[in-house]
Amino acid sequence: MHGANTSSLTPRYFILKGIPELEDAHSWISLLFCFIYIIAVVGNSVLIYIISHEENLHRPMYYFLALLSFTDVIGCTSFVPNMLCTFWFSLKEIDFNACLVQIFFIHMLTGMESGVLMLMALDGYVAICYPLRYSTILTNTAIIKVGLAAFMRTVLLLIPFTFLIKCLPYCRGNLIQHTYCDHMSVAKLSCGNVKINAIYGLIAAILIAGFDMFCISVSYIMIIRAVLNLSSADARHKAFSTCTSHICAIVITYVPAFFNFFTHRFGGSTIPHHFHTFIANLCLLLLLTLNPIVYGVKTKQIREEVI
Could you give the dihedral angle defined by the CA atoms of residues 61, 65, 67 and 73, in that order, rounded to the nearest 10 degrees? Predict the structure, then answer.
């Protein structure tokens, strides 16, 4: 096996193929991805700057939004520069441990995105259902604690997941049919039993995304009940308008995640590999890009500060 340590069946490095069957279009695709990456970094950085410098935005909802933007910046920087080097300079080799780190950060990105969206849903629930106690429930100390809890939950669940990937024997070459180190693409190179990885991955997904979606659903059921009981039509409209941007962010986050999950496991030969790889990259990048656009357009206070 090229570049592999045959005694331990652990490769020294992997080779990223890029988008299979679309090698001739890599230059144009890279320009698209680079443009989206710049928008993601600039847009999220502007949000973080505005929220940190404007006192009237020093409220729990905006703190959670800043955390979401920070997660997006770290997440896209963990794989996009490496992807662009693959496209532009043919630097396709990635160290085995660096590949594991990339897998960890990409999964941590999606886990933190889900966790922060759940916290924002709870924030909306407290703001609408308990407006008089809002400032006493969501204090700065409480915000720090729940933010750290979401972070530690994701990290603690992903460390064993990454360790299981590291322990697999790799004897089917070291060519990854992807633009970055994707868990399933790497696992397909193993000749070992990946059943434990699959089961643990499913458990981690349920404990993170499943739990968060349950909390978000319950929060919005309670929010809708509270809003419908409001006597004023203007108050109902304002409450629903406040929730719209968050609902858009939820859709943007979970639709790409479900697409990747189901196509990897059930797509089989019905979806061309190059199409799946391209869409997986595009969905992940759009996830990181659209959050600042959605909140910048839909949230009046942020829109005014940007102007």
Answer: 180
More confident residue, 303 or 130: 130
Give the dihedral sign, CA 108/110/115/117: positive
The 10 Å CB-count burial string (b at 16+, else e) for 217-233 is eebbeebeebbeeeeee
| pTM of structure | 0.84
In the sheet where 93-95 sits, what is the strand order? 93-95, 13-16, 175-176
Maximum separation of any 2 CA atoms in the chain, in Å: 73
Q: Which residue has the tokens 């997660």?
A: 71
14: enclosing H helix or E strand: strand 13-16
The answer, yes or no, to whether residue 15 has pLDDT greater than 50, is yes
Closest CA to 240 of 119, 128, 116, 126: 128
Distance CA 289, CA 307 (A): 19
- pLDDT tens, 199-253? 888 888 888 988 998 998 888 888 888 877 776 777 677 666 667 766 777 777 7
- What's 167's DSSP letter? T
At 271 the pLDDT is 67
| Placement of tokens 């409001």 in the chain | 230
Q: pLDDT by residue (tens digit) across 79-90? A: 899 989 988 888
CA distances from 174 to 20, 246, 264, 269, 305 (A): 15, 41, 19, 22, 49
Cα gap 163→248, rounded to integer Å: 34
Query: How far is 199 from 78, CA to CA, in rounded Å?
Result: 26
Q: Which of 116, 157, 113, 143 is nearest to 253 (CA)?
A: 113
**CA atoms of 170 and 189, how far apart (whole Å):** 6
What is the total residue count of the chain? 307
Distance CA 106, CA 260 (A): 13
